[in-house]
Amino acid sequence: MTVVLKFGGSSIKNATLISKVSSIIKNKLNNENKIIVVFSAFGKITEKLLKCASLASSGNNEYLDYYNQIYNTNINILKNLFENNQSLLNKPLTETKQLLNNLKDILKGIYLIRENYDKTLDFILSFGEKLSSKIIFYFLKLNITKNIKYLDSSKVIKTNNNYFNADVNINVSTNNIKKYISENNFELLIVPGFIASSENDNSTTTIGRGGSDYTASIFGVGSDSKYVEIWTDVNGIMTCDPNIVSNTQEITEMSFHEMFELSYYGGNVLYHKTISPLCENNIPLFIKNTYNPTHPGTKVSTNVNKKNIISAISCIKQVALLQIQGSSLQGNIGISSRLFTCLSNKNINIILISQSSSEISINFCINKSNVTLATQCINKEFNKEINKSAFRLTLLTNVSIIAVISSNENNRCLISQKLLQIVNKNKIKTYVHNSSGLNSCIVVDNNQLSKDMNLIHNKLFQTNGFKYNIFLLGLGNIGSGLFNIIKKRTTHDINIVSVTNSQKYIIGYNLQQNNLNQLLSNLNSSEYNMNIDEYINNVLDNTLPNKIFVDCTSNSIIPKYYETLLNNNIGVVTPNKKGVSSEISLFKNLYQFHKKNKFMFETTVGAGLPVINLLESLVRCQHKITKIQGMFSGTLNHVLSTFMKTDNDFSDIVREAQQKGITEPNPYDDLSGMDVARKILIIVRLCGYEINLEDIPVNSLTQFVANSPNDFFDKIINYDDYYNRLKHNAKSQGKTLKYIASFEPELDNISVKLCEIDSGHPFYNINGTNNVIAITTDIYDEPIVLQGYGAGKYQTASGVLNDILKII
Fold it and tell me: In order of start, what are the domains of the chain with their CATH numbers?
């Protein structure tokens, strides 16, 4: 049996690749009786021929520059192929130069008459495939010891006179091919793609951009081929265009019907007219990679058993959307017929149609090149209705179509539902939605196409196994601890895509594969300087799905962006108290997102201790809270309990705690008491009271202000005697020192201060970095006490991870 191979321009753009193609053909000949090989023009030659024709017909002699490029490309490839066989170069070189001279003469003619008819343009375009196929024919004849022949495809493929995109008479063409094969003996037949001839006058025609695929399909039917292979520069069909979407997946097999939908809606691997002849004759099609010939590629056939309900996503860029609205449409039979007839009479192809159920609007997409003609004929056809203001035409020219292709027509409703859920949840701006056959389509702004395509693709295909993508701000104690915990996780559902410090940021993928030191080094040497406005825009524009913004800083500016992120369906998790303890209006807005599990801030109060969760449970159960007391700083509890048990100076104990990472880099931030004040403020707000930070009296552990760690330690050493007197006084009464925040709503009392407590107090024996909260309600006789680690790198980081998992 015969097999048909087709090699595109990217597969033959230089002599090295043509030699690779020769090897592929040789290997095929070892296993097959007859091979027909179709060649496109060398890479980018067709575009240059179009440019030549355009410039020449407008009287611009710069067409010669493009002609010279075409000349040099073809001659150089030929000479490189025959580099080791100079004695055999003469005949192919003579034929090639003759073709190029003919091309030059034609271009000169249209330059002189300033005219370029479609018929002439098709003849000019045919030179690309004629040149490439002849050059490769002579090279293969030199390297393959088989019976090899050349056939000008325009001798057998017959069309009408619709130049540039001629309609092929399949029956006549395939019969011509059958006749040629029966009359000619060959093992290898070389054929130029794209070109044909008119049944009326035998003039040269072309069968559409991408027509070399179609040529292979026609020869596949005409030769009753076992299969057809299209060789290109990718490993078969992908779930989306890799030039638009990152992390696409390979498709091993798909049906002809799926392939047709994908090709129709902009899939550029295969020309859509290629499919029908093969489908009707049940000839399998394979998409293969010239650069990776052992890869199995994608098989396209009639019967395919697929588990996935979604095959691929495609798009048609830069179309025009026309919307017709008006009372004249409602219940008026014949409006649609008049509309589409007038467009059809002007050969305007409608790509997509959508009509409202109320019958008062019709939306349809066409190529942008047809906009002027379409609006003219519509305005003419509906002139009476327009004059009565019963008809309005709206035009959008900067839109694109995104199509989700299903593997089965029975899945259409489910696919449409999934697509619309993604659109609504992620607030994708759409103009039209249409669902029919194997596809579900939306029309979107062209400038949002890449972002929308990536988002939809990643939501539908969940690429790389990762489900949630983390933007991690701050690699201090908590941030670095979180990074290490995520790195050690055995379930790979979290992907760190960005990290920042106060100076730099990195945006990448799977950053947790780095070790922390390597990551910090990369961060410090990053080319991206940290600008919060720019960074937030990067987060918003990033097309990955399921984004979570994790703020592990103590920055007071960043929380102002939380609402923007949340309104764009980006989860926010933070141990940063500055947001929820700032103005009450921001807290109330953020809390609305918290109730939807979009904003999580558990660690702002108790670090790894679920203080907020406990308090919210009590409030939901309508407990009347009468008193709350808490030691909300594991840092201060550690410092004070250590101080009470040892003879060390207070300043030495604080310094040691700082070195262990228990305090903030500047311990003043802990000892000032403001951190505790923010925590009790958050608790009070969760109880339903609208107060602000300035409403809370705070007795600081320090009698000074320190703007840096060095400043702090220079000053605190002068207060060691003061702290020793406090300790001596407490011990002399059998008491200990604790830093406690209290809230008694009935007494309208709130305080943050250093307290002396005796052994009867529930906090007396709470030591180390423990946090503790005691909540008294009207339901229980004794306070509810919650105690646990409240400071430390990994304790807090673990709480942050738990918040991330709540969003997940």
Answer: 2-233 (3.40.1160.10), 311-449 (3.30.2130.10), 466-605 (3.40.50.720), 611-791 (3.30.360.10)
